[in-house]
Write a structure and sequence with these properties.
By secondary structure, the chain is an alpha/beta fold. It contains nine helices and seven strands. It has a seven-stranded parallel β-sheet, sandwiched between helices. The longest helix is centred in the first third of the chain and has 14 residues. The radius of gyration is 17 Å and the shape is globular.
């Protein structure tokens, strides 16, 4: 998969740290990796963005932002309020395709969820994935409420004819509650797709060396790691 699109079931579910884990594993295996952030919102021109954080954690990766908007809003709203040009799906696809000619793996990290709008025409990350014919990895939260948002996201991916790779839990709690433990079995069922990893809560605060050492154990073999979904679910069985 030369291009992998990474979306979430919403905001603050662990997309960036999951993207960093996928990148770290790929870099460790000898692959050249690029990380594309189509629209970065909520930070100023001199602040570090999500792609910079991926590079800090994962190691030597190429990073590219297409647009940056100061207010922490959906990209189309943030662009309009800042009187700046929006990002359009075609631009995302073209940038990712170019990076793919120069790298073994390109990770495209979205903003918010799958259908968050890039522009006033309704363009979304899903449209960019369709133009790229790229598989989509969904990052979900662990606890109560995640089943609905994950099922909706997986359903929409299939409705659009996109390749739904599976789910990674972006922040597995240190003290998992009953809902989180039950969701290990229920998430693959409602989404009709595999659980491909669980990134520990707070992983982004690790030193880069510790993050890179741990990343392989957080992701399943399909993503280059050694994480075993069955063993993990059994360990946390309610």
């Amino acid at each position: 998969m030369p291009v992998l699109v990474i979306t979430g079931t919403g905001t603050e579910v662990g997309k960036t740290v999951t993207t960093a884990a996928v990148a770290a594993v790929a870099v460790a295996s000898g692959q050249s990796v690029a990380v594309l952030k189509p629209a970065q919102t909520g930070i100023g021109p001199d602040e570090r963005g999500d792609a910079d954080e991926v590079a800090r954690l994962a190691g030597t990766v190429t990073t590219l932002e297409l647009a940056r908007y100061p207010e922490p809003l959906a990209p189309t709203t943030a662009a309009r309020r800042a009187a700046l040009a929006p990002v359009r799906p075609q631009e995302v696809a073209e940038a990712a395709a170019k990076l793919a000619t120069e790298h073994d793996l390109v990770l495209v990290e979205g903003a918010g969820g799958l259908l968050v709008r890039f522009d006033d025409d309704g363009g979304t990350l899903a449209d960019a994935a369709r133009l790229l014919d790229a598989p989509v990895l969904v990052v979900a939260s662990a606890g109560l409420g995640t089943l609905n948002t994950t099922e909706l996201t997986a359903h929409e991916l299939r409705r659009r004819g996109l390749d739904f790779v599976g789910i990674v839990i972006g922040s597995w709690p240190n003290d998992a509650d009953l809902a989180s433990r039950c969701n290990l079995a229920d998430l693959p069922t409602v989404a009709d797709g595999p659980l491909l990893g669980a990134v520990p809560a707070g992983a982004g605060a690790c030193t880069p060396a510790d993050f890179r050492a741990g990343a392989q154990t957080w992701l399943a073999p399909l993503l280059g790691g050694t994480w075993d979904a069955s063993a993990f679910a059994s360990a946390y069985a309610p």
